[in-house]
Amino acid sequence: MRLKVGAGRRAITPELGTELVGYPRRPPAAAVKDDLTITAIGFESGGERALLMSATVCHVSDGAAERVKAAIWRDLGVPAANVIITATHTHSGPSTSPSGEEAYLRSIFVPNAVEAAREAMSGMAEAKVGVGTTRSNVGINRRQLLRGGEVILGQNPWGAYDGEMTVIAFVGDGGRPIASLIHASAHCTASGIGDTVTRDWAGYMIDRLEAEAGGIALFVNGSFGDVAPRMANGASIGDLRHAAEVGGLAGIDAVRARKAARSFDSVDFAVARDEMRIAQTLTSREETIRELGLAKEDPPKVGYPARRIVVCEEILKAYEAGDTGCPDWVRPQTIFRIGPVALVPIPFEPFTEIALRLRAYSPFGYTLTLGLGNGDESYLPSKDQLARGGYEVEMFRWARARRLPDDADTKIIEENLRIIESCPGFAP
Fold first, then answer.
1. How many domains does the chain have?
2. How many angstroms separate the CA atoms of 118 and 240, rounded?
3. Which pTM value belongs to this model?
4. What's the pLDDT band for 410 if we cut at 50, 70, 90?
5. In a domain, 394, yes or no
6. Average confidence (pLDDT) over 144-157
7. What's the pLDDT at 300?
8. Separation CA 372–CA 20 (nearest Å)
């Protein structure tokens, strides 16, 4: 059967006074530069119905994602396992953690996510698919290496960066635009630390492509864990002016990639559903006590060593309670195949090399990693970066009491390749 596609969108802008996330010690929302949105693209083929959703927030917590998926299953009949929810990772939006902003989730985020999905599923039309790519300099590696070897958040021109921007265009009869999917990689931190709600640079890119190509554009951020927006200030964060500059250039790139999609074909659609499983370890009591002492010697600050202190205390409480078991890390996984394209959600902020390796090993011509896809498990560094340390590495190491192994990047890649290669509907 021919693929059917629909698209929908709703605003999810928080009320003024809402706490913004992404940076510590910042003022609550006092102004709105542009509305935050949640956008959905619905798919139907051969009886399979699925949804790809992108929210212009910092992250979509597990709890928020589960509530949206449950409501979509209840109201629309789309199985929860057939829904991928991602976040663009703007640092100028609210929390989606039930413990932090329950009122926002209940009154704004969840109901509008369901309505965006409803619009997408109710507006289905037979579609052909075109894929275009271009080189984009929207991002730059942000793990700046100082002369003495310290890694700080800045710009690293020789660090890994995935400069391939991909646009997947869905068109109906007569070339009528239905939707576009934009894939690129960079933190949405160009707007900086302020009190203004905004989609950051990605909003300008989305608006420009929609104005040029028509239809609804959905942005999915790729392997952006070690990537900042490329700004003239040489830093990893800027201000609203920097967001407009980066977004304007990204919009030109997106239009160029969309125009490169010159061949439109009827394609197959399939969903692979499975689990990712990785063995974990529990740090010894002796090492935990030593790490806790070192962390407390550092000046108190958000991130590390503050996070290290919290996790060390959790580990010691586990030992005191005799809770020393170490179950595997297990996450349900959903991967979409759209013709020659595989969409692979990763519930972390993954480093660039992970996307490049997965793309190189995958049997598909276009394998797109979706950062913060179906959850937020902190950063996922590539193993080669662990020795250098830095903010992202520390947040990975101290994300949880049970620790993922140093080669978690390889194991995540292998688990996803196993799922791709074992799904009958994913034969290239």
1. 2
2. 33
3. 0.96
4. very high
5. no
6. 96
7. 53
8. 18
